[in-house]
């Protein structure tokens, strides 16, 4: 049996080149950028008025003690106006182009305007209330880098620089496969010996967080239907995510049928808990990568985060950072298994603190809804002490 570290390295040795695709900007939310984005003009593109009020020529107008005659009104969307007399002013609205021959804006709250003349009631600083051309970004600057996760903020930036379509990393075609005679659909009233499918649904909804619309399949515990189902799933998908049928039981046929179908086994069984009977393989002919997770719900979900997600980010060539958190209890993790323990997390003055949740083993389906993530603890002789920083894998 190989270690968790070795298993993960082997998984990461088999990334897929998924390629890129052009998608409409409004469909790019949640995807990863496959091109850098540049400012197509200065931002802001002109000296922009930031308060409703008047624009003046500071040197010409301040200190005269006179009333300033209003020459006109400039609103957002109007072409640039020009102040004719340095001692006068132009009324300006937020978002307007600062008129030529003016350099300073005074907001209405600091003015009295009466019969076409403005009187300033507060001290003025030259240049105030102007958002200068190119002060955010100058034309040609890279504003978003390749590999950035697109959220509504990035969509706004891309709209500003005129990108109606955007090149993103292509998502893989994924099939989430449930195995087992005991499983029935969600809407079915189960017989006492049956249970409703949850793993495949959990994985499908996790995939949807990544912009992946996966398909699903249910295989019964007989070699023929597994063979039939898997052979078409291999042809149609880049990735298969299976749950169940990989341990030592008399009906755990997945590894055997995989190998019969020409899938190369990279490894089976890892020195970890939960998730020990994990089977991983690649089908060279169809270039499909197969993650066959143990069926217990916590094992499936832990392995999805521990192996599939890092594999996907590697395939997308996206760097991810490991997170750490402060352990709030002592834990003894003796060799030989790496342990993944479900925890609740809480921020406390810039530090994420984690406490194991109460759970009832890897078959305890509801425990997942009480946990925020897993901590990863390598086996060792010394006890993990309260206050120690440990690796944290977020599942929220
Ligand atoms: N003799 C041994 N027995 C077992 C071992 C072992 O090493 N030697 N490993 C245990 C461990 S650890 C795990 S984990 C399980 C994994 O077994 P399988 O991958 O073969 O999974 P199944 O037996 O098919 O199912 C296990 C359990 O999970 C439930 N399940 C399966 N699929 C779903 C689903 N889609 N939704 C909800 N629940 C699901 C299933 O009904 C079983 O209760 O093996 C141990 N045994
Ligand atoms: O290692 Mo199995 O995954 O308990 O639960």
Automatic annotation (TrEMBL):
InterPro entries, alphabetized: MoaB/Mog-like_dom_sf, MoaB/Mog_dom, MoeA-like, MoeA_C_domain_IV, MoeA_C_domain_IV_sf, MoeA_linker/N, MoeA_linker/N_sf
GO BP of this protein: Mo-molybdopterin cofactor biosynthetic process
GO cellular component term, pick one: cytosol
Catalytic activity reported: adenylyl-molybdopterin + molybdate = Mo-molybdopterin + AMP + H(+)
SMART domains from the UniProt entry: MoCF_biosynth
TM regions (residue ranges): none
Keyword terms, alphabetized: Magnesium, Metal-binding, Molybdenum, Molybdenum cofactor biosynthesis, Transferase
Source organism, top-level taxon: Bacteria
Domain MoaB/Mog: 175-314
SUPFAM superfamilies: MoeA C-terminal domain-like, MoeA N-terminal region -like, Molybdenum cofactor biosynthesis proteins
CDD domains for this protein: MoeA
Cofactor(s) needed: Mg(2+)
Family: Belongs to the MoeA family.
Functional note: Catalyzes the insertion of molybdate into adenylated molybdopterin with the concomitant release of AMP.
UniProt protein name: Molybdopterin molybdenumtransferase
Native source species: Maribacter cobaltidurans
Upper taxonomic lineage: Bacteria, Pseudomonadati, Bacteroidota, Flavobacteriia, Flavobacteriales
């Amino acid at each position: 049996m190989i270690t968790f570290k070795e298993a993960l390295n082997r998984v990461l040795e088999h990334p897929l080149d998924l390629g890129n695709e052009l998608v409409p900007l409004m469909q790019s939310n949640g995807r990863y950028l496959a091109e850098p984005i540049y400012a197509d003009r200065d931002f802001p593109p002109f000296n922009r008025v930031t308060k409703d009020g008047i624009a003046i020529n500071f040197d010409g107008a301040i200190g005269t003690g006179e009333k300033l005659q209003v020459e006109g009104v400039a609103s957002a969307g109007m072409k640039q106006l020009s102040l004719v007399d340095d001692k006068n002013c132009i009324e300006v609205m937020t978002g307007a182009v600062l008129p030529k021959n003016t350099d300073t804006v005074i907001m209405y709250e600091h003015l009295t305007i009466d019969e076409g003349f403005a009187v300033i009631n507060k001290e003025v600083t030259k240049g105030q209330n102007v958002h200068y051309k190119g002060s955010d970004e100058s034309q040609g600057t890279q504003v978003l880098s390749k590999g950035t996760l697109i959220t509504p903020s990035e969509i706004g930036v891309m709209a500003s620089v005129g990108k109606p379509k955007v090149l993103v990393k292509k998502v893989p075609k994924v099939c989430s496969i449930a195995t087992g005679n005991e499983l029935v659909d969600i809407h079915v009233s189960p017989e006492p010996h049956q249970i409703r499918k949850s793993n495949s649904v959990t994985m499908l909804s996790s995939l949807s967080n990544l912009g992946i619309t996966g398909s699903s399949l249910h295989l019964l515990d007989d070699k023929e239907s597994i063979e039939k189902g898997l052979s078409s799933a291999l042809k149609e998908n880049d990735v298969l995510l299976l749950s169940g049928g990989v341990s030592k039981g008399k009906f755990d046929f997945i590894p055997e049928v995989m190998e019969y179908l020409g899938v190369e086994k990279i490894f089976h069984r890892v020195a970890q808990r939960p998730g020990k009977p994990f089977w991983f393989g690649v089908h060279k002919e169809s270039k499909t990568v197969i993650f066959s997770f143990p069926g217990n719900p916590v094992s499936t979900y832990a392995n999805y985060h521990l192996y599939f997600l890092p594999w996907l980010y590697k395939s997308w060539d996206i760097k991810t950072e490991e997170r750490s958190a402060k352990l709030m209890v002592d834990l003894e993790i003796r060799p030989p298994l790496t342990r993944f323990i479900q925890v609740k997390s809480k921020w406390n003055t810039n530090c994420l603190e984690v406490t194991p949740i109460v759970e009832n083993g890897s078959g305890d389906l509801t425990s997942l809804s009480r946990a925020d993530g897993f901590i990863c603890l390598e086996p060792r002789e010394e006890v993990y002490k309260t206050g120690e920083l440990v690796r944290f894998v977020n599942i929220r």
